[in-house]
Amino acid sequence: MANPFSCIANDTARYFTHQGISCMTQLGPFTINGYIELPENHPWLDFPDTLEVHPDIEVHGGITYHEGRVIGFDTNHLGDGQHPDAPNAYPSHFTGHTWTWEEVEAETRRLAEQAKDTHTMTQPTRQEIITAHEALETLTDTCIHSSEQAEELQELVLRALPPKPQPTMAEEEWDDDKHYLAEAEHVSWGKMVMIYHDRFGSIRCAVKGEVYIAAREDLTPTGKRYTLTEVQDD
Questions:
Q1: Domains contained in the chain, number
Q2: What mean pLDDT value characterizes the chain?
Q3: 45 and 135 in one domain?
Q4: Boundaries of domain holding 102
Q5: CB 89 within 8 A of CB 30
Q6: The pTM is what?
Q7: What are the tens digits of pLDDT across the range 61-104?
Q8: Nearest-5° angle of CA 141, CA 162, CA 128?
Q9: Do 81 and 91 contact (CB within 8 A), yes or no?
Q10: DSSP states of 154-203 as a string?
Protein backbone atom coordinates (compact mmCIF):
# COMPACT_ATOMS: atom_id res chain seq x y z
CA MET A 1 0.00 0.00 0.00
CA ALA A 2 1.40 3.38 -1.01
CA ASN A 3 2.42 5.79 1.71
CA PRO A 4 0.16 8.87 1.39
CA PHE A 5 2.84 10.93 3.16
CA SER A 6 5.69 10.02 0.79
CA CYS A 7 5.58 13.60 -0.48
CA ILE A 8 6.98 14.89 2.84
CA ALA A 9 7.92 11.95 5.11
CA ASN A 10 11.46 11.45 6.39
CA ASP A 11 13.11 8.74 8.50
CA THR A 12 11.69 10.17 11.76
CA ALA A 13 8.06 9.74 10.67
CA ARG A 14 5.60 8.17 13.10
CA TYR A 15 2.33 6.90 11.60
CA PHE A 16 -1.06 6.31 13.20
CA THR A 17 -4.76 6.40 12.35
CA HIS A 18 -7.38 8.44 14.18
CA GLN A 19 -11.12 8.13 13.47
CA GLY A 20 -10.31 6.58 10.10
CA ILE A 21 -7.97 9.43 9.10
CA SER A 22 -4.32 8.59 8.28
CA CYS A 23 -1.95 10.69 10.38
CA MET A 24 1.78 11.26 10.71
CA THR A 25 4.14 13.23 12.94
CA GLN A 26 7.80 13.77 12.20
CA LEU A 27 10.79 15.88 13.11
CA GLY A 28 11.18 18.68 10.58
CA PRO A 29 14.11 21.05 10.03
CA PHE A 30 13.34 22.99 13.21
CA THR A 31 10.41 21.41 15.07
CA ILE A 32 8.10 18.39 15.26
CA ASN A 33 5.25 18.73 12.76
CA GLY A 34 1.92 16.96 12.18
CA TYR A 35 0.10 15.84 9.02
CA ILE A 36 -3.14 14.16 8.00
CA GLU A 37 -4.48 12.75 4.74
CA LEU A 38 -7.91 14.15 3.86
CA PRO A 39 -10.49 11.73 2.40
CA GLU A 40 -11.27 12.01 -1.30
CA ASN A 41 -13.65 14.85 -2.21
CA HIS A 42 -13.26 16.41 1.23
CA PRO A 43 -14.89 19.89 1.25
CA TRP A 44 -11.69 21.52 2.53
CA LEU A 45 -10.11 20.64 -0.83
CA ASP A 46 -12.65 22.87 -2.58
CA PHE A 47 -10.53 25.84 -1.43
CA PRO A 48 -6.91 24.67 -1.86
CA ASP A 49 -5.45 28.18 -2.02
CA THR A 50 -7.00 29.31 1.27
CA LEU A 51 -6.42 26.31 3.54
CA GLU A 52 -4.12 28.32 5.79
CA VAL A 53 -7.01 30.65 6.69
CA HIS A 54 -9.94 28.23 6.30
CA PRO A 55 -12.58 29.14 8.93
CA ASP A 56 -13.35 25.48 9.73
CA ILE A 57 -9.74 24.55 10.53
CA GLU A 58 -8.38 25.25 14.00
CA VAL A 59 -4.84 23.99 14.52
CA HIS A 60 -1.66 25.44 16.03
CA GLY A 61 -0.24 28.06 13.67
CA GLY A 62 -2.71 27.19 10.91
CA ILE A 63 -2.12 24.90 7.94
CA THR A 64 1.41 25.39 6.61
CA TYR A 65 1.69 22.38 4.27
CA HIS A 66 -0.58 21.14 1.48
CA GLU A 67 0.23 18.61 -1.21
CA GLY A 68 -2.54 16.63 -2.88
CA ARG A 69 -4.79 15.42 -0.05
CA VAL A 70 -2.10 15.80 2.63
CA ILE A 71 -2.20 18.86 4.88
CA GLY A 72 -0.02 19.67 7.84
CA PHE A 73 1.06 22.16 10.48
CA ASP A 74 4.34 22.97 12.19
CA THR A 75 5.23 24.15 15.69
CA ASN A 76 7.71 26.83 14.64
CA HIS A 77 5.69 29.95 15.38
CA LEU A 78 5.90 32.96 17.66
CA GLY A 79 6.35 31.69 21.21
CA ASP A 80 7.52 28.24 20.07
CA GLY A 81 10.98 26.90 20.79
CA GLN A 82 12.93 24.89 18.23
CA HIS A 83 13.50 21.23 19.03
CA PRO A 84 17.08 20.39 20.09
CA ASP A 85 17.07 17.21 17.97
CA ALA A 86 16.03 19.03 14.77
CA PRO A 87 18.76 19.12 12.10
CA ASN A 88 18.64 22.89 11.47
CA ALA A 89 17.77 24.10 14.96
CA TYR A 90 19.74 26.98 16.48
CA PRO A 91 20.55 26.83 20.22
CA SER A 92 19.67 30.51 20.53
CA HIS A 93 16.11 29.64 19.40
CA PHE A 94 15.47 27.02 22.10
CA THR A 95 13.59 29.62 24.17
CA GLY A 96 9.80 29.41 24.31
CA HIS A 97 7.69 26.27 24.47
CA THR A 98 9.21 23.32 22.64
CA TRP A 99 6.46 20.96 21.48
CA THR A 100 6.97 17.30 22.39
CA TRP A 101 6.08 14.27 20.28
CA GLU A 102 3.07 13.61 22.50
CA GLU A 103 1.78 17.17 22.18
CA VAL A 104 2.12 17.23 18.39
CA GLU A 105 0.39 13.86 18.14
CA ALA A 106 -2.51 15.18 20.24
CA GLU A 107 -2.79 18.27 18.01
CA THR A 108 -2.68 16.07 14.90
CA ARG A 109 -5.50 13.94 16.28
CA ARG A 110 -7.50 17.11 16.96
CA LEU A 111 -7.02 18.16 13.32
CA ALA A 112 -8.15 14.70 12.17
CA GLU A 113 -11.29 15.00 14.29
CA GLN A 114 -12.15 18.31 12.64
CA ALA A 115 -11.62 16.79 9.19
CA LYS A 116 -13.78 13.78 10.09
CA ASP A 117 -16.61 15.93 11.48
CA THR A 118 -16.63 18.13 8.38
CA HIS A 119 -16.54 15.18 5.98
CA THR A 120 -19.46 13.40 7.64
CA MET A 121 -21.78 16.40 7.76
CA THR A 122 -25.03 15.61 5.97
CA GLN A 123 -25.49 17.70 2.86
CA PRO A 124 -28.97 19.24 2.51
CA THR A 125 -31.27 17.68 -0.04
CA ARG A 126 -32.61 19.63 -2.98
CA GLN A 127 -36.01 19.95 -1.32
CA GLU A 128 -34.46 21.10 1.97
CA ILE A 129 -32.62 23.89 0.15
CA ILE A 130 -35.84 24.98 -1.59
CA THR A 131 -37.72 24.92 1.73
CA ALA A 132 -34.98 26.98 3.41
CA HIS A 133 -35.18 29.64 0.68
CA GLU A 134 -38.97 29.77 0.90
CA ALA A 135 -38.84 30.05 4.70
CA LEU A 136 -36.32 32.88 4.43
CA GLU A 137 -38.58 34.76 2.00
CA THR A 138 -41.53 34.36 4.38
CA LEU A 139 -39.52 35.52 7.39
CA THR A 140 -38.17 38.51 5.48
CA ASP A 141 -41.66 39.57 4.37
CA THR A 142 -42.86 39.25 7.97
CA CYS A 143 -39.97 41.14 9.55
CA ILE A 144 -39.28 43.80 6.93
CA HIS A 145 -41.84 46.18 8.45
CA SER A 146 -40.55 45.75 11.98
CA SER A 147 -36.80 45.72 11.42
CA GLU A 148 -34.60 48.03 9.40
CA GLN A 149 -32.03 45.23 9.25
CA ALA A 150 -34.35 42.63 7.69
CA GLU A 151 -32.95 42.96 4.16
CA GLU A 152 -29.38 43.05 5.46
CA LEU A 153 -29.98 39.89 7.48
CA GLN A 154 -31.58 38.25 4.46
CA GLU A 155 -28.47 38.92 2.37
CA LEU A 156 -26.30 37.48 5.14
CA VAL A 157 -28.30 34.24 5.27
CA LEU A 158 -28.43 33.97 1.47
CA ARG A 159 -24.65 34.04 1.30
CA ALA A 160 -24.53 30.98 3.56
CA LEU A 161 -27.26 29.04 1.73
CA PRO A 162 -26.57 27.00 -1.41
CA PRO A 163 -28.21 28.55 -4.50
CA LYS A 164 -31.91 27.82 -4.81
CA PRO A 165 -32.36 24.96 -7.33
CA GLN A 166 -34.14 25.77 -10.57
CA PRO A 167 -37.49 24.01 -11.15
CA THR A 168 -37.24 20.66 -12.93
CA MET A 169 -39.65 19.41 -15.57
CA ALA A 170 -41.46 17.58 -12.76
CA GLU A 171 -42.49 21.04 -11.52
CA GLU A 172 -42.80 22.84 -14.87
CA GLU A 173 -45.26 22.57 -17.72
CA TRP A 174 -44.18 22.50 -21.35
CA ASP A 175 -46.56 22.39 -24.29
CA ASP A 176 -44.84 20.26 -26.92
CA ASP A 177 -47.61 21.02 -29.41
CA LYS A 178 -46.16 24.50 -29.85
CA HIS A 179 -43.64 24.97 -32.63
CA TYR A 180 -40.43 25.05 -30.62
CA LEU A 181 -37.96 22.72 -28.98
CA ALA A 182 -36.83 23.46 -25.42
CA GLU A 183 -33.31 23.04 -24.08
CA ALA A 184 -32.77 21.40 -20.68
CA GLU A 185 -29.90 20.25 -18.47
CA HIS A 186 -29.95 16.55 -17.55
CA VAL A 187 -28.41 15.52 -14.21
CA SER A 188 -26.12 12.98 -15.93
CA TRP A 189 -26.09 13.69 -19.66
CA GLY A 190 -25.68 17.47 -19.69
CA LYS A 191 -27.50 19.78 -22.11
CA MET A 192 -30.07 18.23 -24.42
CA VAL A 193 -33.10 19.28 -26.44
CA MET A 194 -36.55 18.18 -25.28
CA ILE A 195 -38.63 16.96 -28.23
CA TYR A 196 -41.95 15.73 -26.85
CA HIS A 197 -43.73 14.03 -23.93
CA ASP A 198 -44.42 10.35 -24.34
CA ARG A 199 -47.56 8.59 -23.11
CA PHE A 200 -45.76 7.27 -20.02
CA GLY A 201 -45.03 10.75 -18.67
CA SER A 202 -41.36 10.80 -19.65
CA ILE A 203 -39.76 13.21 -22.08
CA ARG A 204 -37.97 12.24 -25.27
CA CYS A 205 -34.75 14.21 -25.65
CA ALA A 206 -32.10 14.55 -28.34
CA VAL A 207 -28.40 14.77 -27.60
CA LYS A 208 -25.47 14.20 -29.96
CA GLY A 209 -27.70 12.75 -32.66
CA GLU A 210 -29.38 10.21 -30.37
CA VAL A 211 -32.84 10.19 -28.79
CA TYR A 212 -33.14 9.30 -25.11
CA ILE A 213 -36.00 8.86 -22.65
CA ALA A 214 -35.56 11.09 -19.60
CA ALA A 215 -37.48 11.30 -16.34
CA ARG A 216 -39.05 14.69 -15.77
CA GLU A 217 -37.35 15.21 -12.40
CA ASP A 218 -33.92 14.75 -14.04
CA LEU A 219 -34.40 17.67 -16.44
CA THR A 220 -33.99 21.35 -15.57
CA PRO A 221 -35.07 23.78 -18.34
CA THR A 222 -32.39 26.32 -19.27
CA GLY A 223 -34.92 28.77 -20.71
CA LYS A 224 -33.51 28.49 -24.23
CA ARG A 225 -35.93 27.61 -27.00
CA TYR A 226 -35.43 26.69 -30.64
CA THR A 227 -38.21 27.89 -32.95
CA LEU A 228 -39.39 25.51 -35.66
CA THR A 229 -40.51 26.74 -39.05
CA GLU A 230 -42.83 24.86 -41.37
CA VAL A 231 -41.17 23.47 -44.50
CA GLN A 232 -43.03 24.55 -47.65
CA ASP A 233 -43.30 22.12 -50.55
CA ASP A 234 -41.95 23.43 -53.84
A1: 3
A2: 83
A3: no
A4: 14-119
A5: yes
A6: 0.52
A7: 999 999 999 999 999 998 999 999 999 988 877 788 999 999 99
A8: 70
A9: no
A10: HHHHHHHSPPPPPP-TTT----TTSSEEEEEEETTTEEEEEEEE-TTS-E
